[in-house]
UniProtKB/TrEMBL annotation:
Protein's recorded name: Ice-binding protein C-terminal domain-containing protein
Every Ice-binding protein C-terminal domain range: 148-173
Pfam families noted in UniProt: PEP-CTERM
Keyword Transmembrane among record annotations: yes
Species of origin: Symmachiella macrocystis
Length: 177
């Protein structure tokens, strides 16, 4: 009789322990990033994926997953692929914010300073955007670019400075008389 009680207790304990085991899972989700700014590149799209391990997540409230805790990103735009290692502040970033266990915001910045960008005139690619479900199991994100100013911008700036200096000199000369 004691033997059956021992076996019964062991079975119940096994069921309770097995029921409480957390199954870690790598979640991989696709996203499409569309350049919204500046105009010469507006409408250009890139495709990518982000992956993270959900083992330490509760699915309650806002939670942040960063590169050191397992966030992986692959993003291809302008024919060039960038990963989480290309983020200008790698280790602290990139970051994925989850709200109630659902991807909500992606913060991923590639800068020419740390990673060569093959597209001429593009100095930085910023995917700092809310994630919107695309209806196909993935997400869409906005992408902003930092580009080098065109030479006409410098010419305009020099023109404004030149006119300002001429006006200043004319005014000083008029006050001296």
């Amino acid at each position: 009789m004691k033997r059956w009680i021992g076996i019964s207790v062991a079975c119940v304990a096994l069921v309770v322990v097995a029921g409480k085991q957390v199954q870690a899972e790598i979640i991989t989700t696709s996203f499409t990033g569309t350049v919204i700014n500046p105009l010469p590149y507006a409408g250009t799209t890139g495709i990518g994926t982000f992956s993270y391990d959900d083992a330490g997540l509760t699915g309650i409230g806002p939670e942040i997953v960063a590169a050191p805790s397992g966030l992986m990103i692959d993003f291809t735009i302008f024919g060039q692929t960038f990963t989480q290692l290309d983020d200008i502040q790698y280790n602290a970033f990139p970051q994925l914010t989850l709200l109630e266990g659902v991807p909500d915001y992606l913060d991923f910045v590639i800068d020419e300073i740390s990673t060569p960008i093959d597209e001429p005139n593009v100095l930085a690619i910023r995917v700092q955007s809310d994630l919107t479900p695309d209806g196909l199991g993935g997400y869409t994100a906005d992408v902003n670019l930092v580009i080098t100013p065109e030479p006409s911008t410098y010419a305009g700036l020099l023109g404004i400075i030149g006119v300002s200096l001429l006006a200043y000199g004319w005014r000083r000369r008029k006050q001296a008389v």
